[in-house]
């Protein structure tokens, strides 16, 4: 089912129809964004070229209901910028996508996109083994902490991030530069299948759209805008992930980067971001601290007494350590982990206590006693 009005459906079709024409201005990223902010009539006039008359005729004869039926036959759903499910953060863009097409259920979309903290993790397609390992671990740990990790399903860092999140509950969203039903790159067909079954795959381009080069930086603006923080794991000096970081900074989002060797081309872009003021990221704890803060202290002597009574009810030592940390004012997984040696030491007992009804997790990811 699609939740897209006729006006936005028409706009989405037009952007897809003009994809080949937009390719002619791909070398000028600001120009692409300016063009995407034009009205339908202005867009056709700007890039329609010799086909302008034909496209105008098709646009006037366009049937939105038939187009939405085509999307559904491709297995895709859609929400437009007038829908209550449309992510509020995207409205901050000067050129927000008229329609977000996605594969996956609307319930998962609401949970992963609108019901969780979101962090973008991006980086090089030609990443080092250390970079891939770190990206996978970031995806895994953040997913465990209830954070949705967003990336582009590209080879390298992007895929490693999704892989980590898929291993622990699939709190991840892939944003593509083609139709959402298309596995791109083709080498990620299996991952695409896993994402559409357990997570969400999103695109502003309608089903059937090819991955033109202009669409990748355009896709990056969606990744930057939809999330609260962008983390660059590895990036060369001219990496596309730096576009994402630049847009995120322009929108007032937090930008973080993983430091690397000064002699490694893999990390030249990330190191430049750090030099320019990006937040220092070593692990998921740093991301959680930047994203959610250190938590708030509202412990009382009564909660401490409850902790002691729980000890007599057979709670494990790890669970008691978590309860004691929360009683001392720790609220986020990162803050609790500082008192439990490692993040992994905190995640399992936190999850167990939440499932047991002892702790509840708020929308911002913080924990409190019930």
TrEMBL record:
Gene3D superfamilies: 3.40.50.450
GO BP annotations listed: DNA-mediated transformation
All residue ranges annotated as the Smf/DprA SLOG domain in the record: 78-291
Family from the record: Belongs to the DprA/Smf family.
Protein name: Unannotated protein
Organismal lineage: unclassified sequences, metagenomes, ecological metagenomes
């Amino acid at each position: 089912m699609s939740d897209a009005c006729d006006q936005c459906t028409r706009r989405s079709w037009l952007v897809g129809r003009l994809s080949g024409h937009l390719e002619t201005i791909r070398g000028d990223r600001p120009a692409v964004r300016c063009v995407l902010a034009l009205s339908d009539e202005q867009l056709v006039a700007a890039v329609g070229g010799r086909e302008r008359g034909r496209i105008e005729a098709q646009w006037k004869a366009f049937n939105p209901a038939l187009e939405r039926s085509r999307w559904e036959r491709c297995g895709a759903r859609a929400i437009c910028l007038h829908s209550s499910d449309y992510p509020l953060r995207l409205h901050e863009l000067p050129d927000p996508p008229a329609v977000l097409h996605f594969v996956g259920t609307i319930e998962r979309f609401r949970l992963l996109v609108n019901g969780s903290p979101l962090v973008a993790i991006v980086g090089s397609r030609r990443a080092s083994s250390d970079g891939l390992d770190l990206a996978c671990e970031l995806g895994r740990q953040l997913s465990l902490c209830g954070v949705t990790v967003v990336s582009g399903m590209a080879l390298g860092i992007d895929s490693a991030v999704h892989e980590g999140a898929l291993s622990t509950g699939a709190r991840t969203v892939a944003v593509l530069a083609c139709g959402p039903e298309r596995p791109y790159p083709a080498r990620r067909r299996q991952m695409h299948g896993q994402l559409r079954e357990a997570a969400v795959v999103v695109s502003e381009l309608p089903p059937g759209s090819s991955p033109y080069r202009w669409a990748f930086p355009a896709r990056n603006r969606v990744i930057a805008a939809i999330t609260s923080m962008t983390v660059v794991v590895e990036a060369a000096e001219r990496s596309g992930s730096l576009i994402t970081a630049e847009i995120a900074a322009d929108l007032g989002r937090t930008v973080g980067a993983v430091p690397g060797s000064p002699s490694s081309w893999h990390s030249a872009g990330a190191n430049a971001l750090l030099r320019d003021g990006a937040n220092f990221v070593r692990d998921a704890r740093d991301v959680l601290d930047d994203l959610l803060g250190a938590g708030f202290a509202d412990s009382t002597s009564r909660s401490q007494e409850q902790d002691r009574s729980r000890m007599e009810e057979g709670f494990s030592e790890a669970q008691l350590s978590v309860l004691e940390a929360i009683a001392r004012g720790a609220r986020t997984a990162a803050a609790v982990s500082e008192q439990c040696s490692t993040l992994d030491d905190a995640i399992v007992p936190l999850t167990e206590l939440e499932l047991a009804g002892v702790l509840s997790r708020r929308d911002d990811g913080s924990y409190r006693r019930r």
